C-alpha cells in the first residue's frame, strides 16, 4: 500500500494540532469529555494512517473525524466555527488519500454478491421460523458450505487491505454456531467495509 508524501503528512499533523488547540479553548463542560474522547480516537486513527495507508486506515480516520464533527455540532457557533477550517483541511486531505487506497471494484462487487446471498438466506430462515407446522419446509438457499468458500477468498483479500473480519472469520473457520444473528452481523460487517 502507498505511504503518505511529506506534504500530506504535514497537512494531517497540522490539522490535528489546530483541532487540539481549538478544543483546548472550549469551555463547555457538558461536552468536554465527549470532545476529548473524539479527539483521542481521531488522533489514533490519523497516527495509524501516517504509519500505513490502506482502505481500513482511511475508513477509520473518516469515521473518527465524522464522529468528532458530530460532537462539535453540539457546541456554540463560535466554538464550532473555530474548528471548521481544520475539519475541512482533514476532509480534503482524506479525499486525496482515499483515491490511492480504495478497495478494488471487483472485491466490492464480490462482497456485495455475498451480502445478497446472506440477506436471501436470512429472509428464508425468517420465513421458515414463522412457517405453519403443517406445511413442509423448503430447503434454505445458500448453504453455509458455499457461503464459507466465498467468504474464505474474500477474507484473504480484506486482510491484505487491512480489515479485520471477526464475523466472517467465524463463518470461514467452520463454526457450527453460525446462526441467524451471525448472518445479520456479517451483513453489517460487509456494509461497514463497503460503504
Gist?
With 195 residues, the chain is an all-alpha fold. Helices cover 75% and strands 0% of the residues.
Description of the structure:
The protein is mainly alpha-helical and 195 residues long. The longest helix has 25 residues, at 105-129. The protein starts with 5 loop residues before the first helix and ends with a helix. It is built from 8 helices and no strands. The mean pLDDT is 92.
Main sheet makeup: none
Q: What are the secondary-structure elements, in order, as H or E?
A: HHHHHHHH
Strand content: under 5%
Report low-confidence residues grouped into runs of 5 or more.
none
- The beta-strand count equals 0
N-to-C terminal Cα separation, in Å?
20 Å
Q: What average pLDDT do the residues reach? A: 92
Based on CA atoms alone, the radius of gyration comes out at: 21 Å
Number of DSSP helices? Answer: 8
Content-based structural category: mainly alpha
Q: Give the overall silhouette.
A: elongated
Helical coverage, percent range: over 70%
Keywords:
mainly alpha, 195 residues
Helices and strands, with pairings:
Elements: H1 6-24, H2 29-51, H3 55-72, H4 77-98, H5 105-129, H6 144-160, H7 166-172, H8 180-194
Helix pairs in contact: 1-2, 1-4, 2-3, 3-4, 5-6, 5-8, 6-7
Amino acid at each position: 500500500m502507498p505511504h503518505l508524501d511529506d506534504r500530506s503528512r504535514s497537512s494531517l499533523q497540522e490539522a490535528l494540532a489546530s483541532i487540539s488547540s481549538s478544543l483546548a479553548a472550549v469551555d463547555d463542560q457538558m461536552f468536554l469529555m465527549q470532545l476529548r474522547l473524539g479527539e483521542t480516537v481521531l488522533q489514533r486513527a490519523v497516527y495509524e494512517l501516517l504509519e500505513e495507508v490502506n482502505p481500513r486506515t482511511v475508513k477509520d480516520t473518516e469515521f473518527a473525524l465524522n464522529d468528532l464533527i458530530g460532537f462539535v455540532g453540539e457546541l456554540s457557533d463560535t466554538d464550532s466555527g473555530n474548528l471548521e477550517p481544520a475539519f475541512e483541511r482533514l476532509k480534503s486531505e482524506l479525499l486525496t488519500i482515499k483515491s490511492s487506497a480504495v478497495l478494488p471494484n471487483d472485491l466490492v462487487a464480490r462482497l456485495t454478491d455475498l451480502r445478497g446471498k446472506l440477506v436471501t438466506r436470512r429472509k428464508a430462515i425468517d420465513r421458515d421460523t414463522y412457517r405453519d407446522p403443517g406445511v413442509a419446509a423448503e430447503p434454505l438457499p445458500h448453504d453455509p458450505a458455499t457461503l464459507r468458500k466465498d467468504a474464505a477468498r474474500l477474507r484473504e483479500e480484506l486482510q491484505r487491505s487491512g480489515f479485520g473480519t471477526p464475523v466472517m472469520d467465524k463463518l470461514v473457520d467452520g463454526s457450527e454456531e453460525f446462526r441467524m444473528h451471525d448472518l445479520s452481523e456479517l451483513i453489517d460487517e460487509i456494509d461497514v467495509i463497503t460503504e
